Q: What sequence folds into this?
């Protein structure tokens, strides 16, 4: 059973009886609470930025907004030492394989925050020839922060939303304690519907066929 912060507040109220199904599970729920409290207050973001949103992320990391209040001031340049990927900026098709690869290299538990309109859905460049319409088409996103760009306050709100999500998880149900290894996400080759240089001849033949068919249709009309 997944517990939420509201459930915990009820458990702490002596006037509310503990549900039968939880009576034998107090140790787990207490452990969840301590474990999640610790995790939520030591989330280390991955240090990288993609476009203008990254400037606001950098501003958030400075002393004025002080993410150290949340235990999040340590930004790491290695995916091996991080548990939060902040996708801050425009996601180009050329960048997608690198982002997926970095995500696969992060140890679980890991989280993704899509910062801004571009990372969430393509933003002003949606349907541009070189931009994907949201990083959630490739990796799972836990928190979306709207804005173009989002303010540092909005990003902090995203952090708090992530903390609430972490505090609602249970070690009994989280995927990273299940048996077996989790599947790595396949790394796209330069993103979907893109030109794969290894298929150059095939693409050229297909496009020439398409054009011939189009010309024949025009001539017959
Ligand atoms: S959402 Fe706006 S500010 Fe952020 S990367 Fe896109 S264009 Fe730049």
A:
């Amino acid at each position: 059973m997944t517990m939420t912060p509201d459930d915990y507040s009820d458990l702490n109220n002596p006037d509310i009886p503990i549900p039968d199904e939880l009576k034998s599970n107090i140790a787990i729920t207490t452990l969840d609470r301590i474990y999640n409290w610790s995790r939520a207050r030591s989330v280390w973001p991955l240090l990288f930025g993609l476009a203008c949103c990254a400037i606001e992320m950098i501003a958030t990391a400075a002393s004025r907004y002080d993410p150290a209040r949340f235990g999040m001031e340590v930004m790491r340049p290695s995916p091996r030492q991080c548990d939060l990927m902040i996708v801050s900026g425009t996601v180009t098709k050329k960048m997608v394989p690198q982002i997926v690869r970095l995500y696969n290299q992060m140890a679980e538990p890991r989280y993704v925050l899509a910062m801004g309109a571009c990372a969430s859905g393509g933003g002003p460049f949606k349907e541009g020839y070189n931009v994907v319409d949201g990083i959630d088409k490739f990796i799972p996103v836990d928190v979306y922060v709207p804005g173009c760009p989002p303010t540092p306050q909005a990003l902090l709100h995203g952090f708090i939303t992530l903390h609430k999500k972490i505090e609602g998880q249970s070690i009994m149900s989280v995927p990273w304690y299940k048996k077996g290894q989790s599947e790595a996400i396949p790394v796209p080759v330069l993103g979907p519907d893109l030109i794969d240089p290894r298929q150059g001849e095939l693409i050229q033949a297909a496009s020439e066929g398409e054009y011939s068919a189009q010309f024949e249709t025009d001539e017959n009309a």
